[in-house]
Amino acid sequence: MRGALGSRGLRSRIVMGSAVGALLVSVVLVTTTWLLARSYLLEQREGSSTRQAFADANVLGSRLATAGTAVGDVVAELAPSGGADVVVRSGDAWYSSSLDVGARDVPVDLRAVVAAGSAGTIRVDTPEGPALVVGVPVSSAGVEFYELAPLTELQQVLRTLAVVLGAGALAATAAGAAFGGWAGRRALQPLEQVAGAATRIAGGELTTRLPPTADPDLVAIVAGFNSMVDALAARIERDARFVGDVSHELRSPLTGVVTSVEVLATRRGELSPRADQALALVERELARFRQMLDDLLALARLDGAPPSDPDVPVSVTALVREVLAAGGWDRGLLHADPEDVTTVPGDKNALERAVRNLLDNAARHAGGPSAVHVQRRDGVVVVSVDDDGPGVPVEDRERVFERFARGPRAARRSLPGAGLGLAIVAETAARHGGAAWCTAAPSGGARLSLSLPVGAR
Amino acid sequence: MPGVAPRLLVVEDDDPIRTALRWALEDEGYDVAEAVSGEEALAAVGTATPDLMVVDLMLGSMDGFAVIREVRREHDLPIIVVSARADTHDIVAALEAGADDYVTKPFQVKEITARLRALRRRAGSGAPAASAPAEVVLDRTAPALVLREAAGTVHRGDEQLPLTLTEFRLLCELASAPGRVFSRQVLLERVWEHGFFGDERIVDVHIRRLRTKVERDPAAPRVVVTVRGLGYRLDPQ
Predict the structure, then answer these.
(1) Domain-terminating residue out of A249, A279, A303
(2) In chain A, which residues touch B (CB < 8 A)?
(3) Do A286 and A327 belong together in one domain?
(4) pLDDT at B123
(5) pLDDT of A287-326, one tens digit each?
(6) Which of A237, A252, A254, A316 to mutate to test binding with chain B, by most B CBs within 10 Å of its CB?
(7) What span, in angstroms and rounded, lies between the C-alpha atoms of A122 and A124?
(8) Which of B144, B162, B143 is nearest to B152 (CA)?
(9) How confident is the model at residue A1 (pLDDT cuts 50, 70, 90)?
């Protein structure tokens, strides 16, 4: 039961709760009203019937007091009001005012009471409906007087009353449900606002705040939410500043080393062969260190605050061509339909880095790209870099985009690279509203693809 | 001026970087002077009369922006900024203060020397194309705005406008084909000798600075106009 209720929405629970509440209250009220009305009306009816019966019994008694009057004649003359019938027992003979009634209609219990000399009342069910039987002993004439008063009319009234009250209860239940729906909406509205604000904040709009409210029930929620967002924004800003500080702190000493090594490199001839080898090693490691720091900072920037530079239209085909040229790759690797418009809104430097990382990845793990495709397909531009390497097993195809996930051969051959390159590709794609994925190239090597939507991000 | 080593002032408060940079630039044939603070840099500009400057933005009490602004009051020599961050507004602020170009740490000396060479090329004799007209009237409404490429001057009436060498070179490039649209990419390649991935903000900031000097109303430019989405164009008035 609890589980069934718990699985429903808060709003439907409020609606159901208030409907059930309204139903219970109205059932209690309706039942009480009906019972009270019923007993009151019955009492009234019984009283009037009894009075009438006594009056009629008196008339009968006084008529019979006149000598020579036959009981049957008097009974025929008696015409009680309200459609009541009269049954009189005189000795063993029974007389009635109507052919429809007779001794069979007088219950034995009542007969015993009246025979004992007391008046009595009993309710019976006749084929015509419920009726009230009043028995009065007329001791002066030695007869027992019974009057049968039908209760059909009263029952009609009670039935109508029941229908009206039932309809009222249903209406109250419906009104309760409607109120519950309204109250639920009112109660959930602030929650919906919170949800909307949270969604916007998650989307990067860190300036989003809930509007201040005068509602004392909501002040605490709004204040709590807003201070949470303040704290979050401050935290993000602190992190971003930290990245900037780290960047400065690490880059300065690195600059000194890079420049000094360049000075050394111009004096190669003065070095012994061993020193020259050591210098070559330092240069290689330094390049790797630079790359790693660069990647880390690029990734930190992608993780941090939303892009500060506005998007510019970037021709992906031109960009890929330039990246190939800048990296010293063969321009013939590029396959692009010159008819395709491959312009996307984006951050040119970030896209350049992503494409460069795809090419570098192919170089590291497969000796270089075998083909680069730029294609436009419904609403996106897809850049695919194929290689002739061993390919990526299906189970690793998502893992290669994780940070510090190296390809299988890299671990064996200790190739350069911090394993951040493809993570940057994936983050850059996501930043532009696109995606990055890995499949098999037709040649059997790996195909790494990057999609970028042509619409504004 | 062949044979005479160009004088270069390195303003950098980090001793290892400054020293290594001096060695490397001396290897490249520059006559290098050093300054460790903004104040020292301003004094050295007067005494060492450098042809070029390399300025780190993060200095002590007087930062690189202030140094650039002070130097620009009097001098039009090319200034390259060294910054630890390429993605901040620092770069734009430094360019607006008057820097001509920038490199980010950790740079390789060949990046700096390539930039310096590009700046030197236009800072040298000017070497305008032989076909270049002696003067181009940019705005004939008196007082007229006149560009004399060979002389390296721009006059409004009798007054010579204080353009930096880069601003002057940029104006000459636009004036080489009045009415034609130059993309930011093309201007970057021709004036700064940057490749495809150069920072287009450099062009925008220099255009802004150029306008404050040559336009009658820099807020509503008529001579150097922006062509939305394409680039810039020179419209002689």
Answers:
(1) A303
(2) 244, 247-248, 251-260, 262-263, 266, 290, 293, 301, 308-309, 312-313, 318-319, 322, 325-326, 348-349, 352
(3) no
(4) 47
(5) 888 887 888 777 777 766 555 566 778 888 888 988 888 8
(6) A252
(7) 7
(8) B162
(9) very low
DSSP helix/strand/coil, B113: helix
Q: What's the gap in Å between the CA of A288 and the closest CA on chain B? A: 13
Global pTM value:
0.60
Domain that holds residue B102: 7-123
Q: What is the rounded (10 degree) CA torsion for A203, A207, A208, A213? A: 170
Whichever domain contains A277, its CATH number is: 1.10.287.130
What CATH number does the domain containing B176 carry? 1.10.10.10
Instruction: Mark whether B110 and B165 lie in a shared domain.
Output: no
Place of tokens 């008063």: A149
Residue of A nearest to B107 (CA): A255
d(CA B168, CA A187): 67
Domain extent, residue A82, equals 2-158
Contact between B24 and A254 using a beta-carbon 8 Å cutoff: no
Q: For the segment B187-198, what is each residue's pLDDT rounded down to a tens digit? A: 888 888 887 777
Question: Which residues from chain B sit within 8 angstroms of residue A319, using beta carbons?
Answer: 196
Q: Give the end of a domain, one of A263, A280, A303.
A: A303
Tens of pLDDT, residue by residue over A158-175, are 889 999 999 999 999 999
C-alpha dist (Å) from residue B59 to A64, B13, B102:
137, 6, 16
Q: Distance, in angstroms, between A201 CA and closest chain B CA?
A: 23
Is A166 part of any domain?
no
Average pLDDT over residues A274-281: 92
